[in-house]
From TrEMBL:
Family: Belongs to the multicopper oxidase family.
Pfam families cross-referenced by the UniProt entry: Cu-oxidase, Cu-oxidase_2, Cu-oxidase_3
Keyword ATP-binding: no
The keyword Disulfide bond is assigned to this record: no
Transmembrane parts of this sequence: 24-46
One Gene Ontology MF term: oxidoreductase activity
Keywords recorded for this protein, A-Z: Copper, Glycoprotein, Membrane, Metal-binding, Oxidoreductase, Signal, Transmembrane, Transmembrane helix
Plastocyanin-like domain sequence ranges: 87-200, 235-401, 491-609
UniProt name for this protein: Multicopper oxidase protein
Sequence segments annotated as region (Disordered): 409-429
């Protein structure tokens, strides 16, 4: 039966009412809050890529316009003040030491922008030494490579107590870019940071190649708005200037690190007992092979109880993680316990997704992965193993699903993750059946084909020769002679493109605008070396063992077709030169630019394995007065032109 209600009118209902100002103010406040929430949500949703379930629109399908009703975002100008100083830090809990910091932090705080924005980084040097800031994997438009930050090549360094504004247009660039010092070695001592450039809503995504489910695709696109960033940094308890001094006096090669810092957090893990040697060479308590010279830099390893970086899943279904290796020595093998993941981008942009359990991250490289969060609520180790023939080194972060933790008392350090769930053996070798990333299949998405013919072929050789004055020093080079560290304090090459530079030098000129250039690099050394080209990504056409037997790529393609890929080769800023092997790269010069090509391992970089290049020197741009007139010190060339002169 239906309920009956009776309306009861009181005597007060007939009396004149007084205004209820309190209730009215509450109502107005509530409406305002609701409108603010709606406005904030609208701002968020109108400026993010969305999957339109009614129309089927999705940026992954190659659409060049946004769905109906979505407002196009206008580019903004991002201004960021960055004060670079020094502070005492103990990031792994094992040793206090001076560390370079940006706005009091190391790594520096992440700067945020969107693709198409103009970014102004106002750098204030509070140190007692000259510095610079190079943006890895950034293309400087309109020939403005004076913002590249390569001291002595593109610009002067920033002197102590001086300022400089580094400017770059992010149009066509997206992803987690990072920056380091490019005058000497402060980046080995903490001077590094990241900038997250969110991809444009109009950029094509490859997510439909991972899942056809519209909800999955929307979750992947939402993950772009709240990505997780990770820096994997090999860390030493001594500062690099002291280690380089020991290199000059005792032959100590600074390849032995104490910990892996993930976003500035980590702890000292001594060598596991079962790891005793590398290639037949015994290792010490830090997992490092003995120095050929017998030099010693550290006492016995003492484990510490520093914090692990905790990555919260926040009850999401998908997570995007950007991972950068700014450590400048060890490449990493990386896995996440009980999780497969998809590699969807490298430092150039989106690629055809690869589903793997272990990825390899070389020096200075960035990858973007998508992880489906479908495991039981608990903690899962994210593992970082050094891919090195000189040291066993492991580090960890934690992927945490919301759950109640039991069995650990407050104040007790989290235990080291057990080996049971790892996809890798203690030495970093993938376990049987584990899927490892294949970098040769990292094809650009959307597909991109390199120019089919080259106009110019540059032949480089990574090699070393004994220094005539110091028996412990090897002069390293790529183009016949080293580019010494002291050159970073001299007048930038870009200011005088027609001047003759004192010989010997490795400088490359005669690269006109519009030319397609190949670099063929051969490696005399028995170690793989990450190679990096400033300002432009390059196509990796092929690599192999031993010598490159032909005069150019066309001849190699004719004689060994399978060695050279001219259809869909990988493209990026970082490529590994095989130990004792060769590598062929290609790019097209579209505008004048002062650039460099160099090794991205600190010892080879310091010892001279760098090549400055005048690209488009047939149409050299005018250099602004603000660049020419930057305060500087006139530094004369040393008599012997040695690496450490």
């Amino acid at each position: 039966m239906g309920a009956k209600y009776e309306i009861i009118t009181s005597a007060q209902d007939d009396a004149p009412r007084k205004p209820q100002w309190g209730s009215l103010l509450k109502a107005v406040s509530t409406v305002c809050v609701v409108l603010l929430c709606i406005g904030g949500a609208a701002k968020y949703y109108l400026h993010r890529p969305v999957f339109d379930f009614e129309s089927g629109y999705c940026p992954t399908k190659g659409a060049s316009a946004q769905p109906k009703g979505v407002q196009q975002r206008l580019p903004a100008t991002v201004n960021y003040d960055l004060t670079i100083g020094q502070a005492w830090k103990n990031p792994d809990g094992g040793h206090w030491r001076p560390v370079y910091v940006g706005n009091s932090e190391s790594p520096f705080p992440t700067i945020n922008a969107r693709e198409g924005d103009l970014v102004n980084i106002h750098i204030h040097n509070d140190l007692g030494l000259p510095i610079s800031a190079h943006w890895v994997g950034v293309h400087h438009k309109m020939s403005a490579t004076w913002n590249d930050g390569s001291s002595g090549v593109t610009s002067y360094p920033v002197l102590p107590r001086a300022n400089w504004t580094s400017v770059f247009n992010t149009s066509g660039d997206w992803g987690l870019k990072w920056f380091l010092e490019h005058t000497s070695t402060p980046s080995v001592d903490g001077m590094y940071g990241t900038i997250w450039i969110r991809p444009s809503a109009e950029r094509e995504r490859p997510y439909h190649l991972i899942s056809k489910d519209g909800l999955d695709i929307q979750d992947m696109m939402d993950a772009e708005e709240t990505p997780t960033h990770m820096t994997a940094y090999n860390y030493q308890h001594r500062e690099m200037p002291g280690l380089l001094a020991q290199l000059q006096t005792e032959g100590y090669d600074p390849y032995c690190f104490q910990s892996v810092l993930i976003n500035g957090k980590g702890r000292v893990h001594c060598k596991p007992d079962e790891l005793k040697e590398i290639d037949g060479k015994p290792v010490n308590s830090y997992g490092c092979v003995e120095q050929p010279s017998g030099a010693i830099a550290y006492d016995e390893c003492k484990p510490s109880d520093g914090d692990y970086e905790i990555i919260e899943t926040q009850s999401r279904r998908w997570m995007m993680i950007n991972i950068v290796n700014p450590g400048l020595e060890h490449p990493w093998r990386i896995s996440i316990d009980k999780h497969d993941f998809w590699i969807v981008a490298n430092d150039d942009g989106f690629i055809e997704p690869q589903k793997v359990q272990v990825l390899t991250l070389t020096n200075a490289e960035r990858v973007t992965i998508l992880v489906k969060l479908d495991q039981e609520p608990q903690d899962y180790a994210i593992r970082f193993h050094a891919l090195s023939r000189l040291q066993f080194l492991q580090g960890y972060a934690i992927l945490r699903y919301p759950h109640r933790q039991t069995g650990r008392r407050l104040g007790i350090s989290m235990p080291r993750p057990s080996q049971e769930l790892s996809a890798m053996e203690p030495d970093g070798t993938p376990k049987k059946g584990v899927v490892l990333q294949d970098k040769f299949k990292q094809h650009p998405y959307p597909p991109a084909q390199p120019p089919q013919d080259a106009d110019i072929t540059l032949r480089f050789r990574a090699t070393g020769a004994p220094d005539p004055y110091n028996p412990y020093i090897t002069n390293c080079s790529l183009n016949g002679s080293p580019w010494q560290i002291f050159r970073g304090l001299r007048e930038p090459l870009s200011l005088h493109p027609n001047d003759t530079v004192a010989e010997p030098n490795p400088i490359v000129k005669g690269l006109p605008v519009g030319s397609v250039v190949d670099i063929i690099v051969e490696n005399d050394l028995p170690v793989a070396i990450p190679m990096y080209k400033h300002n432009n990504p390059t196509f990796h056409l092929g690599s192999g063992e031993g010598r490159f037997e032909w005069d150019n790529v066309a001849e190699a393609k004719k004689n060994r077709p399978k060695l050279i890929n001219l259809q869909n080769p990988p493209r990026g800023y970082l490529h590994d030169l095989p130990a004792g092997g060769w590598m062929a790269l290609r790019w097209k010069i579209t505008e004048p630019a002062m650039t460099m090509f160099h090794a991205f391992r600190v010892r080879y970089f310091v010892l001279g394995m760098q090549v400055p290049m005048f690209e488009g020197d047939d149409a050299w741009p005018d250099i602004p007065d603000v660049v020419r007139n930057l305060p500087h010190v006139n530094f004369e060339i040393p008599e012997h032109m040695g690496i450490f002169d």
